[in-house]
Amino acid sequence: MPDPTPRVKVCGTTSLHDALLSAEAGADALGFIFAPVSKRRVSPEVAREAGLAVGPVVARVGVFLNQGLTEVLRTAEAARVSAVQLHGPLSSLYVREVARYHPVLRVLRPADLGQPDALEVLSLPGVTPMLDAPEPGGGVPLDWAALRDVFPAGAWLAGGLGPANVAEAVRVLRPAGVDAVSRLEKAAGVKDVEQVRAFIQAARLQAAPGT
């Protein structure tokens, strides 16, 4: 039987301090955003330093949005990330090429589910779907009940998650992993240790069968 406990990713990590904070709190993965439009964008050097500091047990995920293939691969290599998270209207060929080099979290919106490109992506080796809100980082949760019958097996969940609601999201959808950013911060790019700890604890609260 698969482990029902979701992996927990703390995204938008911008400093060595916050990386260590999240790792010590029990995060399974850290997200480093390289998208130029993000107010939480970090350099590959910062991500690499933080990733080396937390060690190999914690996954380091590079987050990209509509960036060129060469830029993604070069940045991922320089930052020494262990996986790549891809946002935006990308072709399955693009996703397949990235997956040749790194495990991929392919971000989809609810409206993408059932579309030919999404179905093809979900069949690619090395690619795991992540369902997110139409506006990533906006802090608005998805309608989990409406997604119960279409949520892809083995998918991750993002979109407006935080300590107050993640247990319910896990209970309803049983995602393989959960991801949060804005509700774990004091300010954009600055983590709140109490919120990070509470999120990780709550994410695992509903994981046991029968809860």
UniProtKB/TrEMBL annotation:
This protein's record includes keyword Lyase: no
InterPro entries associated with the record: Aldolase_TIM, PRAI_dom, RibuloseP-bd_barrel, TrpF_fam
Keywords: Amino-acid biosynthesis, Aromatic amino acid biosynthesis, Isomerase, Tryptophan biosynthesis
GO molecular function, one term: isomerase activity
Catalysed reaction equations from the record: N-(5-phospho-beta-D-ribosyl)anthranilate = 1-(2-carboxyphenylamino)-1-deoxy-D-ribulose 5-phosphate
Domain N-(5'phosphoribosyl) anthranilate isomerase (PRAI), residue spans: 8-202
Record EC number: 5.3.1.24
Residue ranges crossing the lipid bilayer per the database entry: none
Similarity remark: Belongs to the TrpF family.
Protein name per the record: N-(5'-phosphoribosyl)anthranilate isomerase
